[in-house]
Amino acid sequence: MASWMKFNMINSASPTMEQLLTFHDHTMMILLSITMMVTIMMSTMMKNKMSNNLLNESQTMETIWTTMPAIILIFIAIPSIKILYMMEEIINPSITIKTMGHQWYWSYEYSDSKKLEFESYMKPVENLNSFRLIETDNRMTVPFMTQMRLIISSSDVIHSWTIPSMGVKMDAVPGRLNQISLMIKNTGLFFGQCSEICGMNHSFMPITLESVNMKTFIEWMKSKK
């Protein structure tokens, strides 16, 4: 049930999402300050019956209302550019995973040592005992606190690989390889869905990512092989 204390952003599961949440709060504080200042100024001007004819040609006023928005934009742009750079930078990945979008499922390929490839379909409702419409038969399993690189593409139409709690969203474009950096802070299950309208079953190609410790990940790799 919704309450006033639950109108928050989703909990972060990666350093990228932490930075995005911080940037969101930073920008919202600036926007609230601007809204309050404009509201106070408009309220004051509506109550004031006097007029100042000197304001019509005031160079000082024009300088102020030109300079202030520029300064505000700089305060918004600096953290934004920092986050964009951090999201695009690939920092010595320990694991590379190739993700392919299909109509309408995902396939994953682990090819760092020996090739491991599998397909991930949405679980049918009749075989479901957990999460409806977002649980898959084969989960993408990765170790936590490990720098990873995802190479994303598509075999047919444009898809989009997205996990909101990690602040990750990358288009899967046919004939093009896009890459993103990913590091998960803790273990658990994380869910996402295709975020590009890709056809009739667009709503039925979920993403299930399971984050485990390194020992469990190695055992999972051995069992898959």
UniProtKB/TrEMBL annotation:
Swiss-Prot/TrEMBL GO biological process terms: ATP synthesis coupled electron transport
Principal localisation: mitochondrion
Record has Lipoprotein as a keyword: no
An example molecular function term from Gene Ontology annotations: oxidoreductase activity
A Pfam family assignment: COX2_TM
Domain Cytochrome oxidase subunit II copper A binding: 92-223
Function: Component of the cytochrome c oxidase, the last enzyme in the mitochondrial electron transport chain which drives oxidative phosphorylation. The respiratory chain contains 3 multisubunit complexes succinate dehydrogenase (complex II, CII), ubiquinol-cytochrome c oxidoreductase (cytochrome b-c1 complex, complex III, CIII) and cytochrome c oxidase (complex IV, CIV), that cooperate to transfer electrons derived from NADH and succinate to molecular oxygen, creating an electrochemical gradient over the inner membrane that drives transmembrane transport and the ATP synthase.
Co-factor requirement: Cu cation
Location of this chain's protein in the cell: Mitochondrion inner membrane
Upper classification of the organism: Eukaryota, Metazoa, Ecdysozoa, Arthropoda, Hexapoda
Annotated transmembrane regions: 21-43, 63-85
The reaction(s) this protein catalyses: 4 Fe(II)-[cytochrome c] + O2 + 8 H(+)(in) = 4 Fe(III)-[cytochrome c] + 2 H2O + 4 H(+)(out)
UniProt remark on cofactor binding: Binds a copper A center.
Family statement: Belongs to the cytochrome c oxidase subunit 2 family.
PANTHER family in alphabetical order: CYTOCHROME C OXIDASE SUBUNIT 2, CYTOCHROME C OXIDASE, SUBUNIT II
Gene Ontology cellular component annotations, sorted alphabetically: mitochondrial inner membrane
Residue ranges of domain Cytochrome oxidase subunit II transmembrane region profile in the record: 1-91
Name of the protein in question: Cytochrome c oxidase subunit 2
Record Gene3D superfamilies: 1.10.287.90, Cupredoxins - blue copper proteins
UniProt keyword terms in alphabetical order: Copper, Electron transport, Magnesium, Membrane, Metal-binding, Mitochondrion, Mitochondrion inner membrane, Respiratory chain, Translocase, Transmembrane, Transmembrane helix, Transport
Protein topology in the membrane: Multi-pass membrane protein
The protein's assembly and partners: Component of the cytochrome c oxidase (complex IV, CIV), a multisubunit enzyme composed of a catalytic core of 3 subunits and several supernumerary subunits. The complex exists as a monomer or a dimer and forms supercomplexes (SCs) in the inner mitochondrial membrane with ubiquinol-cytochrome c oxidoreductase (cytochrome b-c1 complex, complex III, CIII).
